[in-house]
Queue: 4 jobs
Job 1
Amino acid sequence: MKVFVVFNAYVGSYEVSGRIGELKSIDGVKSVEAMERVAGEVPRYCLAFEIDDETAQKTGEKLKQTLGQYSSYMSNVVWGAYKKIG
């Protein structure tokens, strides 16, 4: 399953990408990719997570809890979980 979190941040790209190690250490997270917008009318940053389907609910809750620690640095936060259909 893939989880995408898009947001603006009151910190720079270095600080956003510097949190990847902490996010990768969450049980059930297979990979994390930090991306920065180059075009479009979307928030500046996107974190793309690949998580285990079997532990998706538990992992998702832990992701929300961890990202909540940084809520004072983030705005326009939206997230969604997607499963592969084709």
Job 2
Amino acid sequence: MFRLPPLTPFVRKLLIALFALFVVVAIAENFLSIPVVRLLALETRELSVATAWQVFTHSLVMAPRDLFPLLISLLFIWLILPPFEERYGASRAFQLALAGTLCAAFAALLVGLVLPNQSGPIAGPGSITLAAMSAYAVLLPAHAEINFFGVLPMQAKHLLLVIIGMSVLGFLVQPNAAALASDVGAIGAGVAFVKWFMQRPPRRRTFSRKPGKPSKLRVVRSDEDPPKGGWVN
């Protein structure tokens, strides 16, 4: 039977923040005529002062018309991140989400600046979702069997292919080269985060004694019979 995992502290705060921000953006855009999405979504076709914060905020904001994509992203975050946080801690879950956000932004900027006519703004927590899903796929043994949404059995190594296929399909539906690059960056971030920060063996620390000044103390043996104290220094 399909069941959602229990919410963990970081994931609970993330889901509440994403949904609350969506409501605030909807009110600001539709009733106050404040262009919040334009201010916080990442404009990939040119660099500006706003790019400095948009690389962080693009994953937190979505246009009011994108309610259904938001709900899908929230569902995937609920499915994937709580088990990750429960096992590795809230700080690791936050680092994974941040890595997905930043890598998606930089990949989208790279493609958007090179192909401005085929690119557009990116927004939404899809980068967090894809980073979490790819990290989950890499953490499992390659031949481990999972149930996608509780109904579709597959091996863990095939989950990564499904994620990439979903991104390509999204590009075919809404051609945006920067958005496709964002997806690839987020997927790569999840894989690299696991390979480099979680599965990489710890480096051995080698200690070398620095040459110091020779000691001025010497042990001198007495010519006479040693006193009760033994050796004289």
Job 3
Amino acid sequence: MSLEVKVQNNQIENAIKTLKRQLIRDGVLKELKNRRAYEKPSVKKKRKQREARRRRQKAARRSSRFSR
């Protein structure tokens, strides 16, 4: 996977913002944060369940909003 951000007109700040937005969207920063320290398997399992529950609730909210 390759990620590329081009700097135009010497606007480095805008390029950094764009790069950061892409990293957040791809989940790279979240993955780095999770890998900084060891996570016990039980804690990892609970975290994954919590994330899945949040995704399901979000999907349910979206589907109910559009079905009106």
Job 4
Amino acid sequence: MNVDDILSFPFIDAPPQESLLRSLELLYALGALDDDGKLNEVGKRMARFPLEPTAARCIIAAETEKCTIETLAILSMLSTDTVFQFTRETNGHKNVSRGKLIRKVRVTELKLIN
């Protein structure tokens, strides 16, 4: 779009100036902007990902560190709701008996160790 000055861009419904400044600071901290505030090569690569800027930067950094698969797995887990399912009892409370059982097993293991 070749927008050189985002702060003076004529938005239809402009966000608060403070939000724009914080966003620019974040992009600069992630290495997406150069010293003049223009999008650099890292920023252009980040813009190709349909993700939050921090997640996109993690993937780009993971490529250099050779841990892309692990990073993608972590980002996938962070971007979804909990994978644990709880059933509802008849009174509407969550069934937490599994959690209680796990705690009992751990306490028993600790007693066996000591």
